[in-house]
Amino acid sequence: MKNNKSVKEYAKLQYSSHENLTNRMNLWSYGSNPETLPKWIFSHFKLQGKEKLLELGCGTGQLWLENYKKIPSTCSIVLSDFSQKMLNKAKENLEPLNLPINFKVIDAQKIPYGNQNFDVVIGCHMLYHIPNIDKALVEISRVLKPSGRFISTTVSKNHIKELKNFLSKFGLYSDEKLKLFSEFRNETGNDVLKPFFEEILFNEYLNYVKITSVTPIINYIDSMSLKERYPNYQEIKPQLENAFKKILEKKSKFEITGISGMFIAKKPIRT
Fold first, then answer.
1. CA distance 127 to 181
2. What does CATH list as the number for 4-156+181-206+260-266?
3. Of the candidates 39, 164, 173, 174, which lies 20 to 30 Å from 158 by C-alpha distance?
């Protein structure tokens, strides 16, 4: 069972700066899917040109950076994150592009906008970092216009299972890690959203990664904040590196399966 305090503390640890997120995104650049996750997500927005959008947990702004040429100038967009340093990185990446974007620090559990303000609210791989998802969903529904859309992404319980299995052999991964996340996965997202939204659609995104060098996988592992949660991580880390080297010498690659998903949910006209 998760602990809300642990969820909050882990999120702060993960996103106190942009480096952890950047290292995780870099791993997927080695994937076989020709369409990147940000481009895949954006393709489902189907913007008409006059929408008001709010993204919660925008990270480094990669979603908009990869799709900036497709953003209508007549849209109104607010990008937000609970981490000021993360938001600063998003501003650094996007402000030179002169897009219709404003930046604001926001806690998704207390959104500082009036009722029925946005046509679309977006939350990419972030709901499971919120201690009280129901509280956040009440707020998201409140600021959405009737029939407005909430577009949220997450991962499957089987996401990166090969890496999880590998780390478990070194005592660096167990089901205890689930306590650091709230329950919102491909398999459970529909049930989480159902009390607040209707017409919930689900789409799955697969990306098979073949790693042929040690550095990107070690950087990804470092980004999981293992050194903060396992006192002996620095001692074990050379063993991890040697184990990966042996795998690459034998098989020439280490394969990881990325399984993400997207829920598109509509706010009821009457609530």
1. 9
2. 3.40.50.150
3. 39
pLDDT of the residue at 228: 74
Write the single-letter amino acid at 210: K
Amino acid residing at 159? H
* pLDDT value at 24 more than 90: no
| Averaged pLDDT, 135-160 | 97
202-223 as b/e, with b when 16 or more CB fall inside 10 Å? eeebebebebeebebbbbbbbb
* Residue 271 banded pLDDT, cuts 50, 70, 90: low
Choice between 258 and 1, residue whose per-residue pLDDT is larger? 258
Residue 21 has pLDDT above 90, yes or no: no
Residue that is written with structure tokens 């974007």 in the block = 101
- Kindly state the average pLDDT of the residues 169-176: 82
Residue of higher predicted confidence among 153 and 131: 153
Per domain, the residue ranges of the chain are: 4-156+181-206+260-266
Residue listed under structure tokens 């478990």: 168
Question: Hey, what are 197's tokens?
Answer: 């939204």
Tokens representing 24? 């995780």
| Selected residue with higher pLDDT from 223 and 187 | 187
| Structural tokens at position 193 | 């959203």
Q: Which of 115, 90, 114 is nearest to 104 (CA)?
A: 90
Q: How far apart are CA 116 and CA 262, in angstroms?
A: 23
Question: What amino acid occupies position 126?
Answer: M
Bridge partners (DSSP) listed for residue 105:
81
Give the SS3 label for residue 207.
Answer: strand
